[in-house]
Amino acid sequence: IGSFEGCTGIEFVDNIPKTVETIGDYAFYGCTRLRDVTLNEGLQYIGISCFEGCKSLTSIKLPSTLKVLREKAFRVCTALETVEFDDGIDFYDNFSYGFYNNVFDGCKSLHTVKLPMNSPGSFIIPMATFSWCSSLKSIKFPANTSRIDQLAFYRSGIENLDLTTITSNEIFVEGYYTFAACESLTSVTANGNFRFSNTSLY
Q1: What is the distance of C-alpha 84 from the center of its chain?
Q2: Is 89 exposed, middle or buried (0-12, 13-18, 19+ CB in 10 A)?
Q3: Under 8 Å between Cβ of 132 and 103
Q4: Confidence label for 195 from pLDDT (cuts 50, 70 and 90)
Q5: What DSSP element (H or E) covers 69?
Q6: Over the stretch 68-124, which tens digit does the pLDDT of each residue have?
Q7: Cα(132)–Cα(151) distance, rounded to whole angstroms?
Q8: Quick one: the chain helix, strand, coil %, rounded to 5?
Q9: How far apart are CA 28 and CA 190, in angstroms?
């Protein structure tokens, strides 16, 4: 699917054929009235800033066939409330990882996120994935989470950080400001398999 960037009259995207594998970079960027998107099974690639600034979009479900979710794909979708990853999503392809940074950055209404619980290999939460998501109070981490990158939850609304669901042999909370400025955060619970960088919690 090519570019409908700035088409402010579009309200719905559905009935995408199963043969569509790619929604390109900036395809629906700034479609401010777009409020309902149904992504097809068979979709493998969501491009850079694909739905960025779609300020009426309220929910999104990512299909099991998705391999690549590029940076800023849903950034500043300020009405987005729920995100569901299919449990079987596998972002690994030929040793590269297809979940990029800043995907939900600035989604200030986002309160419910269902991460993939049965994805093969390990799961990484990239840089600034949920930064500035001020309505996100809690999140359940997949057992195979291996890394949480810098700024991942910066200035989010996280209240109680429960990392005990993660059973990977070692989990690295990487880089600076991973959970910084989470002003509602009151407790952190973790198993003994974590490594925190010096600046990941402030």
Answers
A1: 9
A2: buried
A3: no
A4: confident
A5: strand 68-69
A6: 999 999 999 999 999 999 999 999 988 899 999 999 999 999 999 999 999 988 999
A7: 10
A8: 0, 20, 80
A9: 39
| Neighbour-count burial of 21, counting CB atoms closer than 10 A to its CB (0-12 exposed, 13-18 middle, 19+ buried) | middle
Tokens of 26: 């900036």
Q: Are 151 and 125 within 8 A, CB to CB?
A: no
CA distances from 68 to 6, 23, 45 (A): 23, 10, 5
Q: Which of 152, 140, 133, 138 is nearest to 200 (CA)?
A: 152
- Six token digits for residue 86: 């299919």
Q: Nearest to residue 126, comparing CAs of 84, 93, 79, 175?
A: 175
Q: Residue type for 178, please?
A: T
